[in-house]
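Posting for a labmate who doesn't have an account.
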Amino acid sequence: MKKSYRYITLLALLIWSCSRDKATTPAFEGFVQPAGFPLPVYHLAGNPVTREGFELGRKLFYEPRLSRNNTISCGSCHLQSSAFTHHGHDISHGIDDRLGSRNAPPIMNLAWNTTFMWDGGIFDLDLQPVAPISNFVEMDEKVSNVLEKLKATPPYPELFRKAFGSKDITTATMMKAMSQFMVMVVSDQAKYDSVRRGQTTFTPDESRGYALFQQHCNSCHREPLFTDHSFRNNGIGPGPNNDSGRFAITLKPGDMYAFRVPSLRNLAYTAPYMHDGRFYTLQGVLTHYTSEITDMPTLDPILKTGDKPGIALSATEQQQLLIFLNTLNDKKFITDKRFSQETP
């Protein structure tokens, strides 16, 4: 009788322990479309986000074995504290401290992108990591070598089994895992978002800045993502390396010196600005748009509406616009433990 009682007690403790673990382990929601955002364009049905796939993707994002000499990870040039940009570098530094030719764009709200990179040369998020892995100045590695390194490195085979049902590590499963991490990197918790949700209100200066934004900027930096995903020549002129931008992809003369319209979210964390990082402050950006635009054949027509190329803004209006842009900074995004290198 005593023996049976001990068994019953042990069984009860085991059940309690399991239920307690379940209760303390937060549920994993996967990808959730933010209220007010458009439908994502990433093929989520073909690669649904799971806890196991997301956690594997995060580990791969911070894995230096993706580079030739095992020193550079995606997270080396896309720092969470800088909204996943290479803060402080006008152009990014890669393997062996080699210099690239462009500023690292932020990894943010990529589920709504149809193309990637400053020139839109990649059209599928599942293919995007191949570019930095194989680029001579970034990671300088072959994907086939990366796969072999991962296969030989515990616990990767087991992590792939948990995520995709097989210990076999392939290009497809590696890319899908990384995409599961990247589509989850969503910024939608700025003050602007709280205002849209009716949780707070703008100050008078923020409201005036918002009105100026809608009047002068919203045609390219469309809400709520603050980009229309187009490619435009904004008149900054050719850089030292004469980067032709979108033209190198399409070979269309009208695309000469056209680059992706970047999102205006999290600008406080992502300096310097433009594809080559030539502007170190937002005031420098506004000065460009008000008085320093270079007129050229492919300059975006929106910037040619007046007698002089550019946007007419007084000093006061510029300051109000900057005040509004500060409402797009998402502190929760750059501190979200789900996206950090350390496991939450």
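Reply:
Got it, the structure tokens are right above this. The mean pLDDT is 93.
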